[in-house]
Amino acid sequence: MSLKLERKSFSFQLLKSLKTSKDLLKEKKGWLIKVSDSEGACGWGEIAPIDPDEMKRCDNILKTIATKTSRETLEKKTIMGPGSLSFGIGCALAELDNLIGINGEGKWLKSPLSAVLLPNNNSLLDQLDLYIENSIQKNEELTVKWKVAVEPHLVEQKLLEKILEKLPINSHLRIDANAGWGRREAQDWIQFLGQDPRLEWFEQPLAIEDIDGLVQLSKHAPIALDESLMIDPSLKDKWLSWQVRHPSLEGDPRALLQEFQNGKSFIAISTAFETGIGLRWIHHFAALQQKSPTPTAPGLAPGWCPKSSLFSNKPEVVWEAA
Fold it and tell me: In the chain, which residue ranges form alpha helices assigned H by DSSP?
């Protein structure tokens, strides 16, 4: 089948810089793609890796795809990867095939209430107060995510004590170390927090390759894998506890659609700061997750991206804004 592939680059600044144990994210950039057939039907996708090396790989691969291309060529690219490229092309093909969308088998679903992401700077406690006040006023469940392994161990544990003093007993807390702890540090946190009913999980507490250590920790506290899943996708079938999934980074979205259709449990959906084109998929997956046997709040980082047409739920508007 003959297809037409168009692409446009985009970039935007986050409203707040996101500091993790590994890096500092201030800006998101990538490409929007539009795939259309000879009858005028089209599908939209977004290719926006966070890793600089993956960005270069995606750029090089996109340059090899002619504007006039074929289904076979695009399907091969989704298999070869990398993950963000497979996501973007897979999104466009799925929409073109009416697997999802306005004309598709499944309409776009709206996301449920998101967890909130705390800033890791001096405004953390003040921001937490605002989140708590807002949840009480709206009578909404509060789920808080905090990225750690950024400041010294003892500094963060003192800050944890203050967070726990403020956090309502019926709220939920996710601690994300981004693979920044050693086993001893992780054990210290589990000993301090592991039995707190507000703890939902420790996210990727150890190095991505330390699966044995992660398994041992999971015997004492809920452990969610994140970065390990990117390096070893086979863990998606082996890890029986929580998996934090970033659809726009991990690969062809049609595979994740199938997982939800098969009733898979313990999947949590997380953003990688997408434009409106990618967000349609993230919100849809978050809604599907709520229908799974283990519903939980998605991680959409509300308040971290600017408000503009680039984040519209209408792909034509996003395309024009890029």
Answer: 52-63, 71-80, 83-96, 124-138, 153-166, 183-193, 211-217, 227-231, 235-238, 247-250, 253-261, 276-290, 315-321
The tally of domains found in the chain comes to 2
pLDDT at 232 over 90: yes
Look up the domain containing 167 and give its range. Answer: 116-290
231 within some domain: yes
Domain shared by 27 and 165, yes or no = no
Per-residue pLDDT at 120 exceeds 90? no
Q: What is the DSSP string of 280-308?
A: HHHHHHHHHHHTSSS----B--TTSS--S
- Amino acid type, 27: E
What is the C-alpha to C-alpha distance for residues 289 and 270, in angstroms, rounded to an integer? 11
Question: For the whole prediction, is pTM greater than 0.85?
Answer: yes
Give the rounded percent of residues in the chain with a pLDDT score beyond 70. 98
- State the pLDDT at residue 202: 97
Q: Could you tell me if residue 301 is inside a domain?
A: no
Using CA atoms, how far apart are residues 316 and 322, in angstroms rounded to an integer? 10
- Asked whether 236 and 247 are in contact (CB, 8 A), the reply is no
